[in-house]
């Protein structure tokens, strides 16, 4: 029988260092629960009912590093460039300052209301938080009634026709099965392990909203396009840009729209209105044949999407993708048609 050496050093606050023959471990806990990191590298969690002698021990095994093989080796991580607009200060319009400031006040009150509404969670600690919660409710009611910025337009027939045409353009685009916002883009050298694609993009789903925002009321239709870092609001005379609680605006004569076709290797579900122009493989050779060295080398469709680029001299930079080619073409025509 061998000798066993074990010593425990209590550091206070529930912390303890355990010195044994195999090495040094440490643990932390409170009555009923203790986490131990053993000298062997395993983690042990002990649950107990104090005073009863009943306990449960859950010990995880030490994780060994998995050798890298051809099937699970990491591919290159290209440096992706953010596709984003300029600072909100670049979109200040002197003529729209009074309106944007009124909206910013409503947004600030609404944000404060949201913070107070979260107080309902802490009422279990003190009834004082219930008062904050009711203040939040009152502020929400204020923003939804008296805090709304009222926009009423009296325009000639041609002007309103132009606005309605832009509204219809977004509605046409909305009829597509999928709309995405492209948030990042970059080049890759590992074409073989990226289905033959030379450009890698990150994108998120984008949904067009026809309801006016909480802080606004108008006698005309309004289109909102929520994006990752901002929201575009299309009014008859200008495009508002909301980023957090700050607003800017650009005139329509500054808005530039470019629509072009792009080939996209789709590794997600293919939208029902997409055009498939061919197929490739997840891991592909130079002659477009599948690389048989890789497992799970599935076939991927190559879709023809439409890419919509919204820009302005002041720094607007938004890239959208649309699954329906016809809808994107109609969108471009209606958005760029001049008033006669």
Keywords summarizing the entry:
single chain, 340 residues, alpha+beta, 2 domains, seven-stranded antiparallel β-sheet, six-stranded antiparallel β-sheet, 19 strands, 20% helix, 35% strand, disordered N terminus
Structural account:
By secondary structure, this protein is α+β, with helices and mostly antiparallel strands. The chain has four helices and 19 strands. Strands 7, 9, 10, 16, 17, 18 and 19 form a seven-stranded antiparallel beta sheet that branches. Strands 1-2-3-4-5-6 form a six-stranded antiparallel beta sheet, with no helix packed on it. Strands 12-13-14-15 form a four-stranded antiparallel beta sheet, sandwiched between helices. It is flat. Mean pLDDT is 81; it is low at 1-5 and 63-75.
């Amino acid at each position: 029988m061998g000798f066993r050496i074990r010593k425990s050093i209590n550091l206070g606050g529930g912390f303890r260092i355990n010195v044994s023959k195999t090495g040094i471990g440490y643990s932390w806990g409170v009555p009923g629960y203790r986490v131990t990191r053993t000298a062997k590298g395993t983690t042990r969690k002990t649950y107990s009912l104090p005073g009863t002698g009943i306990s449960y021990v859950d010990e995880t095994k030490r994780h060994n590093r998995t050798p890298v093989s051809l099937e699970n080796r990491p591919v290159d991580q290209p440096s992706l460039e953010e596709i984003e607009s300029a600072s909100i200060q670049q979109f200040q319009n002197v003529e729209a300052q009074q309106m944007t400031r009124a909206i910013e006040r409503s947004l600030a009150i609404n944000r404060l209301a949201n913070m107070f509404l979260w107080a309902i969670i802490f009422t279990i600690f003190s009834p004082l938080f219930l008062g904050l919660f009711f203040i939040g409710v009152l502020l929400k009611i204020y923003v939804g009634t008296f805090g709304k910025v009222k926009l009423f337009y009296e325009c000639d027939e041609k002007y309103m026709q132009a606005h309605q045409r832009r509204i219809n353009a977004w509605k046409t685009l909305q009829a597509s099965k999928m709309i995405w916002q492209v948030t990042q883009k970059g080049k890759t050298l590992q074409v073989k392990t990226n289905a033959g694609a030379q450009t890698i993009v990150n994108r998120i789903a984008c949904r067009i909203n026809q309801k006016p925002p909480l802080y606004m009321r108008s006698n005309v239709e309004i289109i909102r396009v929520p994006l990752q870092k901002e929201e575009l609001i299309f009014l008859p005379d200008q495009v508002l840009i909301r980023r957090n609680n700050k607003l800017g605006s650009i005139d329509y004569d500054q808005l530039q729209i470019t629509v072009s076709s792009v080939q996209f290797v789709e590794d997600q579900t293919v939208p029902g209105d997409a055009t498939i122009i061919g197929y490739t493989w997840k891991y592909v050779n130079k002659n477009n044949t599948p690389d048989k060295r890789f497992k799970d080398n599935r076939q991927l469709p190559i879709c023809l999407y439409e890419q919509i680029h919204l820009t302005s001299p002041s720094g607007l930079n938004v890239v959208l993708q649309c699954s329906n080619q016809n809808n994107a073409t109609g969108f471009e025509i209606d958005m760029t048609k001049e008033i006669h």
